[in-house]
């Protein structure tokens, strides 16, 4: 099984709110189609959810953030997910959308639901999930990043490989020196 993160910086134009890089998305998904083993896609928010979460001051720590902000972030991520799903369908990946609320309770992962994601991937469908703004409870919400989702799923499903598709010049062996 392969776990693949599509970073928000590669699938969107972060300089312009709600601007998807549709050709880039299509090209990436064409390549992912060539992978002949079960796969799970996780995507970031880029100029969709990430943009709005910054604008509304939302963070990963549960707090009483703006309800309007929560709604705007959530709706923008559904919109971006639809773009990813449409491209995946066009590229014959058989996507199966799973919002993070399907496998998270507050900020805690639901192990049996994550195991179900693995079953779905092994069936020939491609589970697609994404970073999002989630309800925590007690009038609090928080941002669950795609990177945290990658770690959460990997801890349970133990994929053979985790791939991060990003808008960077290469792979760093030392992040501090960028070598």
TrEMBL record:
Question: Which keywords accompany this UniProt record?
Answer: ATP-binding, Isoprene biosynthesis, Kinase, Nucleotide-binding, Transferase
**Domain called Aspartate/glutamate/uridylate kinase: residue spans:** 2-178
GO biological processes:
terpenoid biosynthetic process
Question: InterPro entries, from UniProt?
Answer: AceGlu_kinase-like_sf, Asp/Glu/Uridylate_kinase, Fosfomycin_R_FomA-type
* GO MF terms held by the record: ATP binding; isopentenyl phosphate kinase activity; kinase activity
Entries under Pfam families matching the protein? AA_kinase
Record field: catalytic activity: isopentenyl phosphate + ATP = isopentenyl diphosphate + ADP
Superkingdom of the organism of origin: Archaea
EC number(s) given by UniProt: 2.7.4.26
Going by the record, the broad EC class of this enzyme is transferase
Query: Where is it found, in Gene Ontology cellular component terms?
Result: cytosol
Q: Which family does it belong to?
A: Belongs to the isopentenyl phosphate kinase family.
Q: What name has this protein been given in UniProt? A: Isopentenyl phosphate kinase
Q: What organism is this sequence from?
A: uncultured marine thaumarchaeote AD1000_41_B03
């Amino acid at each position: 099984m392969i776990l693949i993160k599509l970073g928000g910086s590669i699938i969107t134009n972060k300089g312009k709110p709600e601007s998807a890089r549709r050709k880039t998305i299509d090209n990436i998904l064409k390549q992912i189609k060539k992978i002949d083993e079960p796969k799970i896609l996780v995507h970031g928010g880029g100029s969709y959810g990430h943009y709005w979460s910054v604008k509304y001051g939302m963070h990963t720590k549960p707090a009483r953030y703006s309800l309007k902000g929560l709604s705007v972030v959530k709706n923008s991520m559904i919109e971006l997910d639809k773009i990813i799903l449409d491209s995946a369908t066009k590229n014959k990946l058989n996507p199966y959308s799973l919002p993070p609320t399907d496998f998270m309770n507050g900020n805690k992962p639901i192990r049996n639901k994550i195991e179900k994601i693995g079953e779905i991937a092994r069936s020939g469908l491609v589970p697609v999930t994404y970073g999002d703004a989630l309800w925590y409870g007690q009038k609090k919400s928080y941002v669950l990043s795609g990177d945290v989702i990658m770690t959460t799923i990997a801890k349970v499903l133990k994929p053979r490989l985790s791939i991060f598709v990003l808008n960077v010049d290469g792979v760093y062996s030392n992040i501090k020196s960028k070598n």
